[in-house]
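Quick one: structure tokens for this chain, please?
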Amino acid sequence: MNERIVELFCELVRIDSESGSEGRFIEHMKRLLERELGAQTEIDAFGNLIGRVPAKGDGRAAPILLAAHADTVKPGVGIEPIVEDGVIRSAGETILGADDKAGIAQIVEAVRGATAHPPLEIVITLGEEVGLKGSRHLDVDRLRAKRAYIIDSERFDEIIVGGPTHISLDIEVRGKAAHAGMEPEKGISAIRVAANAIARMPEGRIDSETTANVGTIQGGLIRNGVPDRVSIQAECRSLVHEKALRQAAAMKSAFESAAREMNAAVKIDERIEYEAARVDDDADVVRLAARAIEAAGLTPRTKVITGGTDALVLMNRGIEAVALGFGGENAHSVDERIPVAALKKGGEILRTLLELAATPAGG
């Protein structure tokens, strides 16, 4: 694979696409898929890009979905990539955007360079970094493929086959305002209620499959006022759905008990973002990825993670999906980087996968 993938990657990261501002990048990718891959493209109601590429070679193989996300985290405006000593990094005080534009570049280059491939559907989603929004709103009725590869992990030897149930908790504690210097005994501190609840509830690493976290807490208006309202954003996750439900119940109970003991009120909105799912290790989508990884001289292994992925969302929506690596390092930081060799290797693994899938037996 030549230097073309490096040029493409640098071109893509120079186009700003922080979460919520991906429109210009999506339009660029629409034109690129049409021009470079001969794709028929459309943008669904949410703004996700869907491209369809006809089979090259034997057209009898089952279609495959390739996906990556358009958005980057902050600071991601004005990215200027530099290539130095075989590594691509940002020249300034921004992230690089390899997460996930390396995955996009590898998809394009793999399709462009494959000697054969099955019918392809290429999806570029929005809002992955802020809650997997694009995949959750993707119009899957427009898709034919029932197998998907999401290029949005780091290691090439790992096949991410599953993920957790993720439950969000939006909590509002209501106390009673009072003058903190003159008559604090007339107030009920919502901050104190929240602190008591958080101190008593299970949090952090609960077990090998389960985590819980309080991410934000906001409350109070003035230094000398007993605060009457606090808002908290919390979450829990588990690879076992029932464990996630029990953890959420324990967190709710802690807030309800603390509020009751201090004569405060609490409102809790609970939302299941997605449910735990897993693709079997012997599923075709996994075995095909493993063959491509082995062809690159690596030993593939399957992995289940407690983070959310577009692959997990698609599993919940009836598509057999796994996540594969793109080779980047230090994602979500200004130290983000990707070796040129890794950028190329990811494209080569994906190209091999497409060629293996091109026959009815492989597909």
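The chain has a mean pLDDT of 96.
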